[in-house]
Amino acid sequence: MVLRPAPAAWGRYLGALPTVAILLPLVVLPVTWLIARGIGVGTEYDWLEVVAGPLSVNLFWRPFANSVLVAVGAALLATLLGGLLALLFERTDIAGAKWLRPFIALPFLAPSFALAMAWVALFDNNRIGGSTGLLSAAGVTADDGLAWGVAPIVLVLGLHYFPLAYFLVAAALARLSAAMVESAALAGAGQWAILRTLIIPSLRPAFAASALICFAEAISNFSVPAILGTPVRFFTLSTQLYRLLESGQAFRGSLLLLLLTVFSLLCLTFVYRRWGGYQAPFAERIKRPALGFRLGRWRWPVTIAAGACVLLVALVPVLALLLSSLAHDGNPLSGDWTLHYWIGAADPLIAQGQKGVLRLAVVYEGLGVTLAFGLGAALIAALLALYMARWCRNNGPGLLPSLVNTTCLLPAMLPSIGLGAAFLALYGGPIGPLPALYGSFALLIMVGVAATLPYAMQSAYSALAYIPTSMEEAARVCGASSRQRLQTIVLPLSLRAVSAGVVVNFSRLIRNLDLVILIFTPMMPLLAVLAYRFSVDGFPQFARALALIILALAVLARLAALRMQRVYEERGL
Amino acid sequence: MRKLISALSIYGLTLFDCVAAPPNSLTDNPLYSAAMAEGKVVIYSVTSRIHLIEELFERRYPGIDVSAFVLSSREQITRLRAEQRAGIRNADVLYLNDAAAALALAREGRALENFVPPRMRARIPGPLRQPLLSHRLSTKVLLYNAGTYPGAAPVANLWELTQPQWRRKVLMVDPASRSDYLDLLATFIRRSAALESAYRDHFGRAPELAAGVASVGEKFIRELFANELVLVANTERLNAAIGRRGQRRPPVGFGTYSDLRNNRTRGWALQIANEVNPAPGIVYPVVLVLARDAPHPAAARLLVDFMMGDDGADGGAALAPFFEPGEYITRVDIAAHPQSLSRTQLRAWEVDPQAVLPLRQRVFDLVLELQ
After folding, report:
1. In-domain check, residue B336
2. Do B264 and B353 fall within a single domain?
3. Domain region containing B187
4. Hey, CA dihedral for B177, B178, B183, B188, is it positive or negative?
5. Which of A159, A205, A448, B220 is most deeply packed, by most CB within 10 A?
6. Do A233 and B371 touch (CB under 8 A)?
7. How far is CA B195 from the centre of its chain?
8. What residues in A contact B365, CB-CB < 8 Å?
9. In which residue ranges of chain A is pLDDT below 50?
10. Subunit contact A349:B233, Cβ cutoff 8 A
11. Residue B235 is part of a domain; what is its CATH number?
12. Range(s) for CATH 1.10.3720.10 in chain A?
């Protein structure tokens, strides 16, 4: 038996080649493109015109201010609501927490555009015409400000992202040393004192991190302002960008894209540097300390209030979507029910001869593409991430591995719509001998893999944590090649953990409209884009039906992931 | 080789006018058999009525699958450009209402190909079949609610729309996202003279142009926006907002004349304000063209031929979805729908695609500035 010498330095660099080959096209080039385009490299545009020209106020400054306004509002709302609920559900003796907790994730599992559509279904007033919303039909006409523009965008985004804050704060609570709390109690500190002087201060980083993360997510969100803002000419950076790109004014969009990128990058980099990242707590199950804060006689009032809040936020959108997809003119209160929008045959009198969604060939095609896209990209990302995470681990701490880690995280810090724009521009046309990927499934997969890498890396690391390095060492000593070790040790042992991650990322991908809105072509229909198009083209019932289908898929995926994780934990792995 | 033969046979066909073969000799139609061999045809269409055409065509010509995608004109052109740049051949036929952009694309020389079914040559006036074949004429005209205003339109002069009584009560689809509305605005600028005399009629004095305002048309657009013009996402919303019955003070707005066809089923009371001065809006061509190097050239030609209608007095089933009040089939042998204004009665301005094209960017910037 011969002990192989540790690889020489050049050997290490050689070994990094596959990793570089993965990251270069998927992350490095798109990020470089985003920045280069933003500062005007290779374009004829004059960015002074965008920021200081006669059109600059409407072209740039107002959308910019709107974006900041919306994102700050949404981040505050999400953090306060999520944090408060986390304290209640994870730290007090509130009743029914076990039953209510599963509903908390629902608003985040729902595609953000579905929530926006639900809002329209509820609050649409007749101000800009079309079908009226449920409330309007019930005789309560929503004010303009409540139906469209900044207020609903802030509310919908805040409600969409509050589960993120919830899980971050809950994770921080779980990390809080129980011994500390107990000793404080023993020393005679009252509940309020413990809360005020111990728990809240130690949660400060979690609150700050959630606020920044929600800000970064909200500022780059496209779907919600597109549905709730555009009809009243309320544009944000992302919707203005889409508008410019779609009307052939791409050169003016570059700066907007760069700014979005810079915003997200700054916020999330800060979070990662300061708090070591948010460990995708959403995918993990949270351990709860036994000790609970006793609410006393407030227990039932608080339970009712918090429970109503959670159920309202989780279920009302779903009900609103469902009911309004079953009604002529989207108004279920008229009592004019129909299944036409789901299963109706072509009728020239309804919706310009459009068949129900379950009869539309394009919907099934879209379903197929969506499933293939979600599963394919999540799976490929998981495998690539596993390979890279293992490489990083085996090559110990050093400049290269940490560079790889940082690079892998980058896509999570970019706005999805920007990532889509970069991939379309870079790979849409032919590059040398390589074929053009415009409209191809490959392009979808690529952008999906890139967007998923950061999360896949996290699950890869946590999967690897269960495989002691000594096992691989032993195999190496026995003469097993790297590939053999990967096949016989790493893959089989990490399969379960990785597959749970795949399912979570699948649901993340299929509801991400922003990522694919620019890449979409009619030949590669995706359910999310079909839903968005129906809504823009004035077929709200069809849009709502499709949004429900996507939501159902995302919920199923989440349940599957939780189940896989439970099995995994029960087996003591 | 097979491709070459089928390509040759198609060009042969169009020469020998076989397309007009009567339906009972369907199988004898060589274009059909060439199309059968291709098995498929892909069309991008601005209207979802294409799905009705899809069913009719597939029934008439079994064995050819129509893939119809509803895309706005701008998307059609963006996609076609990107596809051709990427060397991907996907679209066969484009059915779009942005004649100016299609023209620009055709001028580039590579993207589009005009095909006039031989039996249609004598039936369509020259400018409507060259350089691009127009299928029908559509409109963007001032609509009002005839339920609330049963006598006549509540507006007699377009300049009234810039006055306080119509503040927040004039609707339009966002021109930044729709070429037909961009053309409506561009036509206001082109028709500055007519707007100027309408201004004199209404206000009894000559319009004054503020510094930086280049024309009376531009002044009109600026004042419309200043009067809180409401921009909506699509014509569906626009129609409902204007037309819904039982409104006390319904808005008016620029929409599609032929959408009046939905009045009965949707409970609307839309009506065209045809008498408004100087004109109610625009009438513009909707073109039907082939993508150059279409992957299914025979089926594409067969579809275009089919969509131009049969030899009956009203063009038969294929034209039925478009034979509506307020739509004008370009064929001279087909009169306007009996319930609509004839083409000569309709007072809308005709859009000249070549003339509005250079104005597009300026109008777009104007909209951005005013939004």
Report:
1. no
2. yes
3. 138-283+347-370
4. negative
5. A448
6. yes
7. 24
8. 55
9. 1-5, 129-130, 277-286, 573
10. no
11. 3.40.190.10
12. 47-347, 372-428+436-573
Answer whether A128 sits within 8 Å of B75, measured CB to CB.
no
Please give the radius of gyration of chain B, using alpha carbons only, rounded to the nearest integer. Answer: 22
Q: What is the pLDDT of residue A8?
A: 57
A296–B contact, CB cutoff 8 A: no
Give yes or no for a contact between A479 and A1, defined as CB atoms under 8 angstroms apart.
Answer: yes
Complex ipTM: 0.71
Give the separation between CA B230 and CA A123, rounded to whole angstroms. Answer: 19
* Cβ-defined contact of B174 to A522 (cutoff 8 Å): no
Alpha-carbon gap, residue B31 to B34, rounded angstroms? 5
Q: Is the dihedral of CA B158, B161, B163, B165 positive or negative?
A: positive
What the block records as the tokens of B5 is 């033969």
Quick: pLDDT tens for A468-514: 888 888 888 888 888 888 888 888 888 877 887 888 889 889 988 88
Q: Is B49 on the interface with A (CB under 8 A)?
A: yes
Q: Does residue B311 lie in a domain region? A: yes
Q: Two tokens at A562?
A: 């939780």
Across the interface, whether the CB atoms of B79 and A522 are under 8 A apart is answered: yes
The answer to whether B368 contacts chain A (CB < 8 Å) is yes
Distance from CA of B155 to the nearest CA of A (A): 20
- Cis check: omega of the bond before B131, within 30 degrees of 0: yes
Residue B26 lies in a domain: yes
B157 with B301, same domain: the answer is no
Q: Which of B71, B82, B368 sits opposite A55 (nearest CB)?
A: B368
With CB atoms and an 8 Å threshold, state whether B52 touches A521.
Answer: no
Average pLDDT of span B326-343: 88
The architecture that CATH gives domain A372-428+436-573 is Orthogonal Bundle (1.10)
Asked if the A47-347 domain carries CATH number 1.10.3720.10, the reply is: yes
- What are the pLDDT digits (tens) for A86-104? 988 888 888 888 888 888 8
